[in-house]
Amino acid sequence: MNVADIRRSYIKDKLDLDKLNPDPFVQFEGWLKDAIAAELPDPTAMCVASVDADGQPSQRLVLLKDMSTAGFVFYTNLGSRKAQELAGNPKVCLHFPWHPLERQVIVYGTAERVPTSQVLHYFTSRPKESQLAAWASEQSRPVSTRLALMQKFAEIKHKFEHGEVPVPSFWGGFLVKPHKIEFWQGGEHRLHDRFMYSRQADGSWSIERLCP
């Protein structure tokens, strides 16, 4: 297979400065609504990139669970690799790959833990099976077989069969507070449209076009 020959043209849309909202969160919300309206699979899926103590980057897909002018929120096991890496180095990058719309959004920022009250509110809104899975999985840790994992899930399910599932002490969320947000729209002849929002000292945002 010759992957070098796999290519396509990007002709769906164009992005100009006068089409951008001066607030990147408003701009993002508009694009997210477009992704949802287009019925893209997992429109809230985002790649989270973190770096360990040795400088080794790692990435994984998680789901965006909240967004405001404060930033972007996701939840995870606090013993997971990403949570441990963010505890040591809070610098983080998010990537939203809306390929069918020929769009991408990249968020550069720092991560901080969300309040316990917010974690509780979200955890109790999850389906019970998802709550049980949070207890059953020691995320990122080795497990001998899938059968062992399912047996642990069955044990947890039996334990909480007749009551509410409490929030595990090892489960929480992160707020990614951005200082830069890039919006990318595919263009003809690989002349893509890229705009970078940068947060200024006074909290406002500047916008500049980048070469593709």
From TrEMBL:
Keywords: Flavoprotein, FMN, Oxidoreductase, Pyridoxine biosynthesis. GO terms for molecular function: pyridoxamine phosphate oxidase activity. Pathway: Cofactor metabolism; pyridoxal 5'-phosphate salvage; pyridoxal 5'-phosphate from pyridoxamine 5'-phosphate: step 1/1; Cofactor metabolism; pyridoxal 5'-phosphate salvage; pyridoxal 5'-phosphate from pyridoxine 5'-phosphate: step 1/1. It comes from the Bacteria. It catalyses: pyridoxamine 5'-phosphate + O2 + H2O = pyridoxal 5'-phosphate + H2O2 + NH4(+); pyridoxine 5'-phosphate + O2 = pyridoxal 5'-phosphate + H2O2. Residues 171-212 form the Pyridoxine 5'-phosphate oxidase dimerisation C-terminal domain. Residues 32-158 form the Pyridoxamine 5'-phosphate oxidase N-terminal domain. Catalyzes the oxidation of either pyridoxine 5'-phosphate (PNP) or pyridoxamine 5'-phosphate (PMP) into pyridoxal 5'-phosphate (PLP). Belongs to the pyridoxamine 5'-phosphate oxidase family. This is Pyridoxine/pyridoxamine 5'-phosphate oxidase. It comes from Rheinheimera tilapiae. The lineage of its organism: Bacteria, Pseudomonadati, Pseudomonadota, Gammaproteobacteria, Chromatiales.
